[in-house]
Amino acid sequence: MTRLEAAIVNTLCYADIFKYPLTAREIHRYLISRRPTPSSSFASGLSVLLKVHLTQKNRGFYFLPGRKVIVSRRLSLRRVNHEKYTRALHLTSWLKFVPTVKAIFLTGALAMNNSDRNDDIDLMIITRTGYLWSTRLIVTTILDLFNVRRRPHQSEVSDKVCLNLWLDENYLQLPRAMQNLYTAHEVAQAKVLWDRGEIANRFLWANRWILKYLPNTPLPSPTPSLYPIPYTLYPNFFESLAYHFQRRYMKSRQTRETITSHSAFFHPKDTTAWVMREYHQRVSQYLSNS
């Protein structure tokens, strides 16, 4: 098996964790490789795998041998994901009026149209520099008024909004400890719902480390607007108050969450460890069976 063919298999193994077959274009975009792969050579590698039955294809989707059932699953979820996406856009239409909200991204399964009916809606919000915690206080209050925010330990979460990632626009690069294959996927597949001026491009450029894992990811060309903007605002008393109030409120409830004055990562479960364990198991099983 060539290096390219192994990269295609690895990509299908990763997608299989989420019961998600891929189109040829999706395999190429999310190809797990060490270097970029031209479309022409990629197409020939995929064709070889099909001919020797090391991968299969059905209705335009590629998957591991014996996993045809996930094609039907993906197709059956189209309507559910369209409804959830429409709901996310509707909520965004309200949140964008908060002047310190700079961008809203859809993340997680729904960003890939792979959300089950009972899943919540994951959002990442980027705020004006120096206003993250006051913005969070306002946004969560709005969602609470509509009774759509997911609460900790809540069992019924269908269509509830999970605000699991907050970033200050001057601190867009994810911490080095989070820079791995799983997070690279989350960054690459994040879908912009609303953007107040090139924030999406700045976010991708700040996290161009994802090319180490997904080298075919399209990145914006570097321009002065992609670099952090100077912070010239006077200290915000309300921001400091909001930060310390929320830190104190969360102190007794905090598990694996990572919180700073300019970022907040609300991921109580170690999803990365589970995904990487499943990924390596699938790759090993595939190689032993081929």
What does this structure look like?
The chain is α+β, with helices and mostly antiparallel strands and 290 residues long. It folds into two domains: 3-76, Arc Repressor Mutant, subunit A, CATH 1.10.10; 81-271, Beta Polymerase, domain 2. It is 43% helix and 13% strand. It contains ten helices and eight strands. The longest helix has 19 residues, at 271-289. The model has no long low-confidence stretch (mean pLDDT 92).
What's the CATH class of the largest domain, please? Alpha Beta
CATH topology of the largest domain: Beta Polymerase, domain 2
The structure class reads alpha+beta
The radius of gyration computed from the alpha-carbon positions, rounded to a whole number of angstroms, is: 20 Å
Principal-axes geometry comes out as: globular
Helix content: 40-55%
CATH architecture label name of the largest domain:
2-Layer Sandwich
The major beta sheet can be summarized as: 6 strands, mixed
Q: Spatial order of the strands in the main sheet?
A: 6-3-4-5-8-7
- What's the number of domains? 2
Residue runs with pLDDT of under 50 for 5 or more positions: none
The counted number of beta strands is 8
Strand and helix layout:
Layout: H1 3-17, H2 24-29, H3 39-51, E1 56-58, E2 61-63, H4 69-76, H5 78-95, E3 101-107, E4 121-127, H6 132-145, E5 161-168, H7 181-189, E6 191-195, H8 199-206, H9 237-250, E7 258-260, E8 263-265, H10 271-289
Parallel strand pairs: 4-5
Antiparallel strand pairs: 1-2, 3-4, 3-6, 5-8, 7-8
Helix pairs in contact: 1-10, 6-9
